[in-house]
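hey m, so remember when u said the C-alpha cells were messed up on ur end? i reran from scratch. heres the input so u can diff it against urs
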Amino acid sequence: MSYTPSSARLMKNTILLYFRMVLMMCINLYTSRIVLHTLGVEDYGIYNVVGGVVVMFSFLTDSMTASTQRFLTFELGADNKQRLHEVFVTSIHIHVIISLITIVLGETIGLWFLNEKMVIPPERMTAAYWCFHLSIFTAVLDVLSYPYISAIIAHEKMKSFAYIAILDAVLKLMLVYLLLVFDYDHLILYAILYAGEKLLLRSVYNIYCLRNFEECQYRWFFDTSLFRTMASFAGWKLLGSMAYVFYTQGLNLLLNVFFGPVANAARAAAYQAQTAVGKFSANVQTAINPQITKTYASGQIDEMHQLIFKGFRLIFFILLIICLPLIVETPAVLGLWLVEVPEGSVTFLRFLLVTLLVQRCYGVLITAVSATGNIKRYQITMGTLTLTTVPIAYIVLKLGGTPWSVFAVHLIIVIITNIVVLGVILPIIKLRLKDLLRYALMRCALVTVLSLVIPFAIKLMLDPSLPVSILNIILSVVCTTLLSLTFGLEPEERCLMKNKIRGLWTRFQK
C-alpha cells in the first residue's frame, strides 16, 4: 500500500502539538520559577545535578526509543499489522532489560560518584540520597513508558498526545501547590511528588494504548532475529545517545566539580528555558517524523526529500522567531521569569539558544537516515566528534576557563559536527548538497541576516530599560515572522498557511 504524505495532516498535527507545547511551556516555566524560589538556589542545583547522574545512564533508553519508533512507523507505512505487534512486544522486552540495567548502574556506579566525587554540603546529603533513589525510580518509569509513547507518535494521534499533556500540566500544578502547603524538607518532598506524578502519567499512556492500538495488547512473543535487528539498530544509535547524555550531564558535573551547586542552578535555569524554546521546534519534528519514515518505507524518495526541506525550514524559522529576541534581551526575560536569577544564567542561556538553532534543524536529516536503517557511519562520525566535548571542556577549565567556556566549547563542536556529518548523511538518503543549499540552508541564512538588523539597531540606539526590551522583543518577533513567510517558505506553503489562518478566523467570527 502506498503512503500519501499530507501537508494538511502535518499542519493539523503541528497545531495540536503546539497547543500541547504552549500549555506545557507555561506550566513548566511557572512551576520551575516556584520550585527555584521554594527550594533555594543551592537545593535546586543539588536536585538537578543529582538527577543528572541518573540521566547519564539513560543513553540505552534514548537509543532504544529511537529504534522502537522507527520500526513501528516503518511497519505502519508498510501496512504489516502482524509485524507491527511483534515489533511492539519485542520493544517491551528490550525496555524491561534496559530498566534493570539502569537500576544496577545507578545503584552502583552512580551511588559511588554521588558519595565520592560530587560537591554537596554535608547537611544536605540525606536529601541528596532521597533525590538520587527517586530519580532512578522515575528513570525506570520513563523507560517503561517509551514503547507506548512511540506507538502514539507512530499512529500520528497528536490530539490524544495533547490531551495527556493537559493532565500532565494539571498534575504539575498540583505538585507545586502541595510543595507550598506541606511544611517538610522541600527537596525531599519535591522528589517524592515528582516521582508520583510520573507514575500516574505512565499509567495513563498504558491505558490509552491498550484501548486504542491492537498491537499494544501484550501476548508473549520472542523472535531472536527481530530482537537482534532492533538491538543492532539501537546499538548504532547507542553511540550517538551516549554522546548526547555524556556531554549534557558531563558538562553539568564539570560545573559542579569546578564551581559547586550554584553553577548547577544557573545551568538548570538556562537549560529549562532552552528546553521550553526547543519544544517549539520539537512539535514540527514530532509531526513530520512519521511522514518521512512512511514515505521511505513506501519507496517515495522524492516525496521524502520534499518533507526534509519543508521540515528543515519550518524548524529553523520557528526557532529563529523565538530565539533571536531572547538572545538579544536575555537579562530582561530571565528577570521577569525568575524571582532570583542565578549568577551566570544569562550567558549560559545565550550560548544554549545559539547551539539549539545550529543543532535542531538537522533532526529531519537524522530521521531520514534512521528510516533507511543505514545509520552506522553517521552514528560513528557524530558520536565520536560529540564525545570530545567533555574532555576538551575539562582541559579548558583546568587552564582557568570560566563557567561559560564549557558552553562555548559545546557550540564549536556542534558546528564542526554538523559540517562533517553532511558528507555522510546526504549519500545515504540520496539527497544532493546543492538541493539542500537551495531549498533549505540558503533561505535560512538569508532570513537570519535580515532578521538581525532591527533588534541590534534598537540595542545600539536606545538606552536599556524594560519598555525598550519589550518593544524590541515584539518588533523582532513580527519582523522575523514576516521575513520567514516572505523569503523562507514556498508559495504553496504560504498559501496553505493563509488558508489555515483564514479558516480559523472564520470559525472565530462564528
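this time it looks ok to me. Residues 7-55 form the longest helix (49 residues). if urs says something different then somethings off w ur setup not the seq
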